[in-house]
Amino acid sequence: MLKMAVLLSGSGRTLDNFHERIHAGTLQAEIQVVVSNVAGVLGLSKAEKYGYPSFHGTDNDAINTILADYDIDIIALAGYLKLYTPPSSLQRSVINIHPSLIPSFCGDGFYGSRVHNAVKKRGCTVSGCTVHFANEVYDEGPIIYQKSVIVDYEDTADDIASKVFAAECEAFPEAINRVDARGIDFFWDRIQG
Asked: Which of 19, 44, 94, 122 is 20 to 30 A from 9 via CA?
C-alpha cells in the first residue's frame, strides 16, 4: 500500500475520489498529508473534514518542507496547477493526471477547459485522460495509464470535460494501484530515450 501526499490548488474533487475509494477498499493507498499552493481553497477544508493533515505551502520549498515531516512513497498532483519540483528523494515519485490522451493537447498552457476547447475545435471524436509520472517538463514523464472517452459531434467543451472527469475518477486510482503492484521503477524503465 502506497503512502501518498496529495497536492491540490482548488476544490478537491480528486481528493474526494481518492478518499471514497480508499474507504471502499479499491485504492491501495493511504493519504498522509494534503497541501495546497492556494490558501483557503475548498480542497483544504475537505482534507480537514476527512481527517488528513492539511497545509498551505506557497511554493516548492514550502511544500517540500511540509512533506519532509511525513513518510511518503508517492505524491499525487490532484488539480495542482503549477510545475512542481519535489525533493530529490521523491524525484521519480510524482504522479499527475492530464485531461487528454498524451501526446495530444498537452504541455505548458494546456490544462482544464483549454484542453477541452482545443479538442472540440479540432473536431476530435475521442479524448480522455492520461496518468503519468511528472518530471521537470509539463506532461513528459512516463505514462502509467490512459483511459479514452467518445466525443460525439454535438458535444460542447463542457460535455467533453464531464466525460473526461468521469474517466479521470476511474483512471487515477487505477494508475496508483498499478504503481503499487509494479513499483515506480517499472514505469520509468519501460520508456525509451
From this structure: 122
